[in-house]
Amino acid sequence: MELELRHLRVLCAIADSGSVGRAAAALGYTQPALSTQLRRIERLLGEGLFARSRTGVELTAYGADVVSQARDIVTRADALGRRHRTGGPPAPVRRLRLGVTNTPVVPTLLDALREACPDLAVSVSSVYATGELLGLLEAGELDAALGVDYPGLPVRYSSGLAHRAINTVPVFVALHVGHPLAHRIEVPLEELSEDTWFVSHDDGVGWPGAFYDACRAAGFRPTDTHEFHVLDQLQSMIAKGLGVALVQPTVRPVDGVLVKPLAGDPLRQRHLLLWRRELVGAPVVEALHHHAVHTYRNLLAGAPHLQRWVTRGYTSARVPDGLKPAR
After folding, report:
1. Do the Cβ atoms of 323 and 301 come closer than 8 Å?
2. How far apart are the C-alpha atoms of 62 and 46, rounded to whole Å?
3. Which residue spans of the chain are classified as CATH 3.40.190.10?
4. DSSP tally for the chain: helices H, then strands E
5. Using an 8 Å Cβ cutoff, are 302 and 199 in contact?
């Protein structure tokens, strides 16, 4: 077997859908046929590319590198095809309306886009809920967006939109430095059953349902909750010992706050790039995705609580893309 362009498309489709079954449906394969093809590709490359889970598959650190290179090759091949059909390169995109949810990547991403796409004028709209971002994309009021979904709860949209996964990360918990569990390396979710929780409101794609499902699986339902999602104010409340909250692993805690992993990773969040197919060309999609991936990796690498978690010998299946410790 030799690696072909169609094999690279298979890898990209599986990475984007987070499921061999969903990728098979999108590509017109049966699931057994696509699973067989994936095994052949992995044998050819000599290492597993995806880690299997209860809800689908996630890229290993090696898989993330392979798929990143595969995307570049596929994008270049598609661009050559368009140039052949049209007789020349596509016209440059001059304007991009980008929606973003609660993400720390925006400043660095915009700076990188300014360097990579100097002719592209980007206007940013900050929206809390990914569900609202999807509505704005469907209505043609946004061209692209950075949103989230959750393993087992993939985003749903019309055929006019497309998405690409940026990464999948564990959800951590923020608690007061004087909390009884502050000394733990990992915090069991069930041992937070009596705490007051700050819970952000409905994001339209599965939150806070995913949180309550995890609590139910841990044997409890939070009885004392507050709806809160403004990060600065939230950390101030936690620093005063008024409750705990689930946070992204890129969060930098303020004085009086600790950020800890949850034992067993009961919750994960997938970051996504979404866009309108007819409005955003492949070069812009590639630039957005490439710089979003690298920005997230740099942020994750700079989070000391995450690095302590990574370097304590956890398996690569649990480690976010690009953060597997060197051997």
Report:
1. yes
2. 11
3. 170-261
4. 10, 12
5. no
Neighbours of 243 (CB within 10 A): 21
pLDDT in tens, 214-237: 999 999 999 889 987 677 788 999
The tokens describing 207, both together, are 């939150």
> pLDDT of 15-45, one tens digit each?
887 888 888 888 888 888 899 999 999 999 9
CATH number of 170-261: 3.40.190.10
163 closest CA partner among 73, 60, 269, 289 = 289
Q: Hey, what are 295's tokens?
A: 């920005």
- What's the longest Cα–Cα distance across the chain? 68
Residues of the chain with CATH 1.10.10.10: 1-90
Sequence-distant (6+) residues with CB within 8 A of 113 are 120, 122, 287, 288, 291
CATH class given for the domain over 1-90: mainly alpha
Q: Give the separation between CA 172 and CA 166, rounded to whole angstroms.
A: 18
C-beta separation of 256 from 177 below 8 A: yes
Pair 286, 103: CB distance under 8 Å:
no
Is residue 95 within 8 Å of 120, Cβ to Cβ? yes
Residues 71-87: pLDDT tens digits? 878 877 776 765 555 55
- Gap between the Cα atoms of 165 and 19, Å rounded: 12
Cα separation, 303 vs 321, whole angstroms: 14
Q: Are the CB atoms for 3 and 46 separated by under 8 Å?
A: no
The answer to whether the peptide bond before residue 253 is cis (omega within 30 degrees of 0) is: no
Strand blocks (E) in 61-199: 95-100, 121-126, 144-149, 161-170, 172-176, 197-199
Q: How far apart are CA 192 and CA 263, in angstroms?
A: 12
Q: How far apart are CA 53 and CA 97, in angstroms?
A: 35
